Amino acid sequence: MMATRIPEAYIEEVRNKTNIVDVVSQTVQLHKQGKNLFGLCPFHEERTPSFSVNEEKQIFNCFSCHRGGNVFKFLMELEQISFPEAVIKVAQFSGIPLPEAVVQSRDSVQNSLNSQLQGLYTQAQVLYTHILLKTKVGEPALAYLQNRELAAEVIDEFSLGFAPNQGNVLLDYFTSHQVARELLVRSGLFVQTNDGRLIDRFRNRVMFPITNQNGQVIAFSGRILTASENEPKYLNSPETQLFQKRETLYHFSQAKQSIRESKTAILFEGFMDVISAYKAGVTNGVASMGTSLTSQQLYLLSRAAQKLIVCYDGDEPGQKATAEALKLLKNESFEVGIISLPDKQDPDEFVKAHGAAAFQKQLSQNVLTPIAFQLQHLRSDYNLNLDGDRLAYVQAALQDIVTIDSSVEQELYLQQVANETQLDLTALKNEFETARVKYAQKQRATQRQQQQTQNEDREVPTPALNVKLDRAAISERRLLHLAIHQENVLLQLTSDEQFQFNEPQIQKLFTSWVAYLRQEGSHSIAGFTDQLSSDEVSLLMGIEMLDLPDEVSDEEVADYRRNINQAQLQAQLRQAQLKVKNASNIGDDQAAAQWFSEMLNLKRQLTNS
To answer: What pTM value is reported for the model?
Structure first.
């Protein structure tokens, strides 16, 4: 909590002056669909968009994970921060000056463990950069970077730094600032010796800060400055609660705006490849964390990019890594392209040898399709001057070509294989037809197996889910929606002392809305959500995102109320029937007669309602 409470008037000002679409678009690629904008939910992995934003109401909702709320709630969920932190971040995003009292106590917001860890990483990055640029001990590292033709603006863009070999510079710095030992241990920035001492993890290394998708430093990778047989060339931070390699892409936070604008991401193999590409004017490059490409990283990219170009090293390991990446990409929705650089060069070597213009030309004019790359890579495994290798290559190539949907592409690559192997095209097509039939049979068998598995795994809907779909439940949600957006409906319900919603959560939302309207200031759904619990926000967002008109006829309102009243009477009738049965079982004829009379009365009311 902040020492100084943020004034309600200021919170309202920030909310009213900020468009939630602008904030959400920094993370989610949104597309207009009807009244709302839709995209892939940033809170869970999905392939079909279920995340929506209503610009008019300034709210968001995910129909799958049921998270929802206003712009503050979005940042709270996304970055796992408190409400005051979210208000400050949105204010800074919109350029709204903070109240002086809030500025003075802002540091007290940094209380959560995540915030404290991120604060350590940020301080470490600033210190490492200072050592690189401003100290004598950093001069060898700066010379190394300058020899690699990294100008000052590039060093600044990537916040590069240097961890010296002398002493425990980082430990001494944090100790002098009285940082708790437990936090230092959790950070992964230090190694604990057998006798319990802490020492700097990174020594004699050029430091590459690693950021999350919001641009916050969460880890480091250090490249050894002076080669050593006992030390790895690159050393990464260990995984922490903030940093998981499989979920992180190097340079993504800086590149995502360029990726969105071009709808294209370029995937490189290493950090220096990303930096070299940036020097060459390619700003939409990212790299995985020294490990194989993961589905989590692809999901991160899918929220910003429609096309993915893989530009790994041109040597054999790089080409094998490309082939592995293509296997993972088979089930993804990206338009995929591959760059195979000549002379087995990596992007850094190519830029140095041929220049920025030539590299940009490679990326725009020499992009291979996945099948073209696979055939090229496959061909390198065979000697086409030998009959046995030629036949083996043809069989392997056909297994790739049958996966293509386009008959025109199939024709193109069959012609290519026929020319390479000097085989008759008609004979090759006959062989292809046999392979195609077998592939189709295999696909159908796989689909049947998947369907069977899905049927076995499908859960039987619970009674609670069915209740939500009955007529009365639907009527309650629609009537609450109207009461919020149509004043005459609200007056009609509040003036009827006998009226009450059946579902306690719906009734509580209604009561809270009425109380909210009595408060001073402007009133909106976005503002209302700040006063609700997470469960209440989830229910309200589901109702607000329904495709309903804000105004309906009096007859429809009466119909909703009739459905709700009938549900109440039916519940009372079931209770009366149970009372009759219980009284009869114990021989209490008087009570049984009273409840029977009540039962008949309820049946008459149901008939007349």
So the answer is: 0.66
